[in-house]
Design goal:
Distance between the termini of chain A: 63 Å
Mean pLDDT of chain A: 90
Strand order of the largest sheet of chain A: 1-2
Number of helices of chain A: 7
Shape of chain A: elongated
Oligomer: homodimer
Number of strands of chain A: 2
Largest sheet of chain A: 2 strands, antiparallel
Helix content of chain A: 55-70%
Strand content of chain A: under 5%
Radius of gyration of chain A: 24 Å
Low-confidence stretches of chain A: 1-5
DNA sequence: CTCCACCCTCCCACAGGGTGAGGGTCAATC
DNA sequence: GATTGACCCTCACCCTGTGGGAGGGTGGAG
């Protein structure tokens, strides 16, 4: 277990390859606000602090942040990521557990895409038949008012 | 201007074709909660009340609720709907204004669909190469950890 | 020593809903 | 005339995920 010595001097910490929250944010792509938020909701474990109460991040923490960032960019929910993180850390996980989470998310994505595509189809049809000029007649409003 | 006489008897109101919030909800498909919410944010004008402080809806109000419901089901934001409603009520609106709102929304939808499709593509690729069994090796986690 | 960039905590905002508490009211049945 | 059950009222808090700002402490460079 790597365990950061708590309550370091700031300069000392940076000298040992540890970084403050701003550098962790830049290195991971996760904003400072969100790093603190992820810690608050327990997604990220509490990190060590300097004497001045500054958070101090190690390479592992930044790696975890990048993991989270990547997972978010693939649309995983925070709760999914919570499970993915614990599977990632569990070296004897069954890959089936990971796949199950991914498949569930994939289904949700596909369902939402389908819904939005049907909205697009309807809207394009209506929009195509709307003159789009100074006249008030408009099939878009007619549809909303009638359907 | 149809103006509902304020402070009616409940039975009297129902006798005149006016309805209470529950009936308006059923007739429009908008939940009771959301009708009150839309009123609170000013999307729906304040309606008359009975002596017992019950909201009383006329046919026009129910029609407006159906308009909102339909617009929401096409994915329009509340702010878009606010504009669409005022254009709907403005008989000399230019249809171009309506079309502009619809086109903006359409673009947003298409952009989000594209984003989600690229998530799907990535996830399907990763998922296809994951055994999904008892073994811990998993390209999904590898991608999240490395990329 | 001063200045600025950074850090801290705490609270608020957004969309678009949902849930529930703690009350009042209406109409039908006994 | 009382009870009962289905409504209605307001207020206030919950969710997801992110950003903004207030108000105050710190680190390091000039």
């Amino acid at each position: 277990m790597r365990r950061i010595e708590p309550f370091l001097e700031h300069a000392d910490a940076l000298g040992r390859g540890l970084v403050d929250i701003g550098r962790a944010a830049k290195a991971s792509g996760v904003s400072v606000k969100m790093i603190r938020h992820y810690e608050a909701i327990g997604l990220l474990k509490k990190v060590a602090r300097t004497y001045a109460n500054y958070r101090v991040y190690g390479a592992n923490d930044v790696h975890t942040l990048r993991f989270i960032k990547r997972a978010r960019s693939l649309g995983f929910s925070i709760e999914d990521i919570r499970e993915l993180l614990s599977l990632w850390q569990n070296k004897s996980r069954p890959s089936a557990a990971v796949k199950r989470i991914a498949s569930g998310h994939l289904e949700g994505l596909k369902r939402r895409i389908t819904e939005m595509q049907s909205m697009v189809a309807t809207l394009e049809h209506l929009s195509d038949h709307c003159h789009g000029d100074h006249r008030p007649d408009c099939p878009i409003l007619e549809d909303l008012a009638k359907a």
